[in-house]
Design a protein that fits this description.
The chain is of the alpha+beta class. 73% of the residues lie in helices and 18% in strands.
Amino acid sequence: MHRTQWNDRICGVLLAGCVANIVAFGAHGLALGGSVWNGKRERGKFFVGDHGRFTEVTERQWQRLWRHELSLFATVPLGIFAGFLLQRSEKICRQRSTAIRSEAAT
């Protein structure tokens, strides 16, 4: 398999993983009623927040959602980078195929 094909596959997997993580985060936050980023901890209680409304959750749920939110800081930049590389690879392939066709025509 050619190197660019491996790069495209790896980038595709990274991009799909990023999208899956974002969707899972949205579903997780929706199921709990908000996000830790907008939430708070008060007197040993844990709350997730959404537009100024707070929902009490267990410490375990709060910790899981907090870790999930942190994971977005790693996966989103990786997904953006992978998408950029895929777009660049596609552009290079189009340029090469155009050059090959023009050489064949002459």
